[in-house]
Amino acid sequence: MAGAPPVSPRAAHLILNHLISMIYKIFRVSTILSADSVTWTVRVFIVLWSILVIAPLLLLLAFSFFETRSYMTVYDPSLKTWISLFESGRFEVALRTMRIAVTVTLIELILAFPFALWLAKGCKSKETKAVFLALLTIPFFLDLSSRSIVWRAILGQAGGVNTALMQLGVISEPIDWLLYSEFSVHFGMIAPYFPTMFLPIFLVISLIDDDLINASNDLGASPAQTLRRVIIPLSLPGILAGIVITLGPALAAWVEPGMLGGGFVNLLSHSIESAYTALRYPVVAALSAFVIVLLAVILVCVVLVVRRAANIENIFRQMHT
Amino acid sequence: MSPDGGPMLKTTHGFAENMIDEQESKRSAMLELQHISHNYGAVKALRDVSLTAYKGEFLTILGESGSGKTTILRVISGLETATSAEVIAIEGANVAHVPAAHRNCTTVFQNYALFPHMSVQENVEYGLSVRGMPKADRAKRALEALEMVKLDGKADRRVSQLSGGERQRVALARAIVTQPAILLLDEPLGALDEKLRQQMQEELVRLHSRLGMTFVYITHSQEEALTMSDRIALMCNGEIVQIGTPEDLFDRPNSAFAAEFMGFENIFEGHLKEISDERVSVEVNGHGFHGRWSGHQAPLIGQKAFAAIRAERLKLEGAENHAEDNALKCSAGSTLYRGKYVDQHLQTEIGPMRARIWDRANRKSSISTVSWHPDDCVVTAP
After folding, report:
1. Residues 6+ apart with CB under 8 A from B56
2. Quick count: other Cβ atoms within 10 Å of Cβ B230?
3. A154 and chain B: CB distance < 8 Å anywhere?
4. Is the pLDDT of residue A172 over 70?
5. Nearest-CA distance from B195 to chain A in Å?
6. Residue B95's pLDDT is what?
7. Which end of chain A, C or N, has fewer beta carbons within 10 A?
8. Dist. CA B292–CA B308, nearest whole Å
9. Pairing assessment for the beta strands B231-236 and B214-219 based on DSSP bridges
10. Exposed, middle or buried by CB within 10 Å (0-12, 13-18, 19+), for B275?
């Protein structure tokens, strides 16, 4: 085969491997803890991870069982904060947050997968690849609020889109759902959350040996069959990683709903913020814990769905060797 | 004596072609390539290649890396679309514009290309299941194919649990299970160790005769080509430079390149001096040697020619000599221990030579002449 292998930047490769092995460990954490082959690296990792991540989480959870009276936290364990959470209609907010985060994640997946497939396998020019990858890092450089606020000028009642449509005679009065609506929140979140979905999928597809795709083709599979039976199963680690690192931030999204929702799209992040301003720390803790529980529930669902489609452990094992 | 070589030489030269003509009338072409050219950018990978493989034939395409042999295979399989192709016919039907998935041939890839997320059996069943064959039927066929490559006990294994040789067998089973007209093998034994390679060579030959399928086999190893093939096509720089039986290539290389590739250790450039009925005479650096002409066209007096002699055909002192032998004064150089034999380097007036000594007990301490029989001296075209 005279064609050059797909570009897989070494650094990116390392990061992906690291990410994959972490996910792999999470899936097999019980085996790792019980195995005799627990190396010191694993021990150090577990200790550091416990101090930096697990302990604050537990503390947070503990705080949610206290309550606030006249701006003072009362250290008297009870379920009052949790009960008030559901009685005050925050449950609805939680559902809305979950719906928007999941929708945005799905939109990202639907956009990112074909693009990643094309860039990794369809695009033969290394220059084009480099340009696209460079463009994709832009969201990491610019401040999120300055990027979001621009959309107000474009989507507003007197904004670019409405003005253009009215001048063209397509509409007679401005469309009001373009801004300060769930539409604008979704729309505003698409670009910022795209790279986190795209990059892991792109890397994992780049790592698929071209000959596997050739072999499938050679054995008589249609392009759709090759996609469904070879490319998607082998991309699952990247797809899972993309979902995890997109969904988490999307659940906690704060800037876009604030700037483009204009107070009409109330999400959990705002509840947390207002509780925080009111110094109601147990409410902040309960809400945060609730977001984490939501994330965990969604991820378990994703894993269960994926497990029906393929044997995850085997895919990870393959990626690992 | 006519300058174009005379009748006798013409017949010797035309012998192989006559034989193929005869076969052609008896056997039908399974694969036919006509005027295939392919470029990778500015690189010419194939230059106007034409090739025919007959039904049930084991055809080997032999060449160095970069000679274009893998490109031919990819053009046949449809994984590569040739820059220009007059005919790519499988079983008589032109498939030049048919996608790879619909061509009646499968490939055994050099790196096996087994699907890592599937079991051995799922890999073998793949070609059947994409064609919509019912589960029970394809399981039966897959197990038959696995049995044919002696892997029937490992159907449930993961690919990662197999050794290199076993992976190779799975790749074979996966390719033959759909019963294609042509099996394309791209250096399938390249990654195996010596012993396993020899074992697999025998198994491939056995499998070939059992299936009666047409095999097109790519290799850079002349030893593999000689042991397995019905015919060998030797490639150089995107062209087929010689095609014939293993004996043709081994004994009658039609060019200096073919002679060198087929392992002639001693090759000397000279000019044709004489052409007689059975022999030609070539002059190398003032020395005349008799030999057999095997060039790709009729010999012409005065043309540039190469004399090629295998190291094991050189005779040193003590060997039985014929009156008509070519002989040359020489002095002994270094020796190279090669296990089964010893290679003796010689200094002669026409340049360094290499002689092979099998019988170490009979090694002479002093060597002053080297000789070889004209039948062992191949005179060939540039």
Report:
1. B27, B30, B212, B213, B214
2. 17
3. no
4. yes
5. 26
6. 92
7. C
8. 10
9. unpaired
10. buried
Query: What is each CA distance from B189 to A210, B182, B199, B217, in whole angstroms?
Result: 20, 18, 10, 10
Contact A219 B174 (CB under 8 A): yes
- Alpha-carbon gap, residue A4 to A210, rounded angstroms: 10
Give percent above pLDDT 70 in chain B: 91
Mean pLDDT, range B176-200, rounded to an integer: 91
Task: Find the CB nearest A211 among B111, B160, B175.
Answer: B111
Residues of B with Cβ-Cβ distance to A229 under 8 angstroms: 126, 130
Size of interface A-B (CB pairs under 8 A): 77
State which amino acid sits at residue B37. Answer: S
> A216, A218, A222: best mutation site toward chain B, by most B Cβ within 10 Å?
A218
Report the alpha-carbon distance of residue A83 to residue A127 in Å, rounded. 57
Which among B249, B377, B243, B235 is positioned nearest to B313, based on CA atoms?
B377
- The pLDDT-based confidence of A1 (bands split at 50, 70, 90) is very low
The DSSP symbol for B263 reads T
Average model confidence (pLDDT) across chain B: 87
Closest CB to B113 among A215, A317, A318: A215
Q: Which 279-318 residues of chain A touch chain B by CB within 8 A?
A: 310-311, 314-315, 317-318
Query: Nearest CB to B115: which of A2, A212, A220?
Result: A212
The CA distance from B379 to B254, in Å, is 9
How far, in Å, CA of A211 to CA of A231, rounded?
Answer: 12
Tell whether the model's pLDDT for residue B309 goes beyond 50: yes
pLDDT band at A292 (very low <50, low <70, confident <90, very high): confident
CB contact under 8 A, B127 and A219: yes
Contact B217, B229 (CB under 8 A): yes
What are the tens digits of pLDDT across the range A53-63? 888 888 888 88
The pLDDT of residue B11 is above 70: no
pLDDT tens digits, A71-97: 777 788 888 888 888 888 777 888 888
- For B200-241, write each residue's pLDDT tens digit: 999 999 999 999 899 999 999 999 999 999 999 999 999 999
- Residue B118, phi-psi category: left (phi > 0), alpha (psi -120 to 50), beta (remainder): beta
Distance (Å) from the alpha carbon of A140 to chain B's nearest alpha carbon: 34
Task: Assign B300 a pLDDT band (cuts: 50, 70, 90).
Answer: confident
pTM metric for this prediction: 0.79
Statement: residue A17 has pLDDT above 80: no
Of B357, B287, B263, B70, which is closest to residue B185 (Cα–Cα)?
B70
Token pair listed for A79: 């379920």
C-alpha closest to that of B225 among B61, B380, B91? B61
Report residue B91 as tokens.
């079983």
Beta-carbon separation of A222 and B160 below 8 A? no
Whether residue A7 has pLDDT greater than 50: no
Residue A282 near residue A66 (C-beta atoms within 8 A): yes
3 state SS of B331: strand
Pairing of strands B342-348, B287-293: unpaired
Residue in A217, A310, A317 nearest the CB of B100:
A217
Q: Which of A315, A122, A291, A303 is nearest to A230 (CA)?
A: A315
What strand order describes the sheet that includes B326-337?
A: B351-357, B342-348, B326-337, B369-372
Can you tell me the distance from the alpha carbon of A279 to that of A291, in angstroms, rounded to the nearest whole number?
Answer: 19
**Amino acid at the residue A318:** Q
